[in-house]
Amino acid sequence: MADQSRWLSTAQTAQLLGVKPATVYAYVSRGQLTRHPGADPRTSRFDRAEVQRLAARARRGGRAGALDVVLDTELSLLDPAGALYYRGRDATRLAGSAGFEQVAELLWTGTLPDTAPEWTASTEALIAGRAAQTGLPAAVRPADRFRVTAAAVAATDPLRYDRRPAAVAATGRALIAALVDTLPRRAAPHDGTVAARLWAASTDRAPTVPELRAFDAALVLSADHELAASALATRVAASVRADPYLAVLAGLATLGGALHGGVVGAVESVLTDLAPGGRGVAELVGERLAAGESVPGFGHAVYTGTDPRAVALLRLVTDAAGGPPLGGLLDELVEVVGRHGGPAPTSDLALGVLAAEFRLAPGTAEAVFTLGRVAGLIGHTVEEYRHRFRFRPRAVYTGPDPDDSQA
């Protein structure tokens, strides 16, 4: 007779991992846990040894020393095969049918409004945000300005410690408005949307309707991506009851890392080198390979198929451009990098292509990604405030043995 103690039910597996049953199946979808049919094919069972290994990896660090942190969220669902959903709605379809403000409201409240009012910041917030930037060099990138502004405007809000969901959503609207409206403007906004206001800070050229549609869609597609490092940082801050501004700042600080939002800036640099008349595609890719480097904007850590955000956004950019982006150089780059089963484009590449094709100021691609992601960080803040303090990781000490004889 088989050893029945080998098998765990879904409920037992969830208990051992310290997660909800639904999260167990998230592990299955990511290939981190194997589901076996139970006596009744409609039920599941899991190998105890495999579950214990997964639990140990979450405590001590997974492959390559990476911690595997899994939290429940209602905000976004990432399907590694190539799909992304915001509260059960396909994010790529939302990008084509709803504006950024509407999608942010969906993330914060669970309801997608038919329209969204223009978001505004208080006069005090705008004054503080602009004053904080007066000492910055003119060439400072928008994403860095966002971090300075977020810290400054927080001090103008005497009610920032109101952690009720409706209050945090109101803070999110005002904060995003302050971030975009304190940027140095190059032109008057085309309209009152966040996309139009950010566009006016990125170029003195008025957008075409397809260009502004793609720009707004880029914000939508950047809004959230499950439990990215910036979302986790925001949740840790929110878990100790930091106010929403500080929680977002924790996320913005993490977002600025070279392996997170900084990838978008690296993509911008590569595309600048690929401008017509510059180095050839094969030459540029070859130089990076010779240096032991990859081409930024290709190969996602989670998606095993295509990045759906990249596919959707590149399609919109192509439509707005009326032909192949970057004079066909993008197609050549994708072909060269993707040869022999190479990596597929990511949303980082798509954002860089959008900024290059529309001739927007340096740093715009990163600004779109960062401003869009603030919506998701606010959503994670709202969710985390529902929980009691729950982040107290323990370390496994690997230093010298304690020496009690030393003073």
TrEMBL record:
PANTHER family reported in the protein's UniProt record: CITRATE SYNTHASE (PTHR11739), CITRATE SYNTHASE, PEROXISOMAL (PTHR11739:SF4)
InterPro entries given in the database record: Citrate_synth-like_lrg_a-sub (IPR016142), Citrate_synth-like_sm_a-sub (IPR016143), Citrate_synthase (IPR002020), Citrate_synthase_AS (IPR019810), Citrate_synthase_sf (IPR036969), DNA-bd_dom_put_sf (IPR009061), HTH_17 (IPR041657)
A single GO BP: carbohydrate metabolic process
Family as reported in the entry's similarity comment: Belongs to the citrate synthase family.
Short name of any one Pfam family annotated for the protein: HTH_17
Protein name: citrate synthase (unknown stereospecificity)
Keyword vocabulary terms for this entry: Transferase
GO molecular function: citrate synthase activity
Domain Helix-turn-helix: 7-57
SUPFAM superfamilies: Citrate synthase, Putative DNA-binding domain
Pathway involvement of the protein, from the record: Carbohydrate metabolism; tricarboxylic acid cycle
Gene3D superfamilies hit by this protein: Citrate Synthase, domain 1, Cytochrome P450-Terp, domain 2
Species this chain originates from: Actinocatenispora rupis
EC identifiers of the protein: 2.3.3.16
Enzyme class, spelled out: transferase
Cellular component terms (Gene Ontology): cytosol
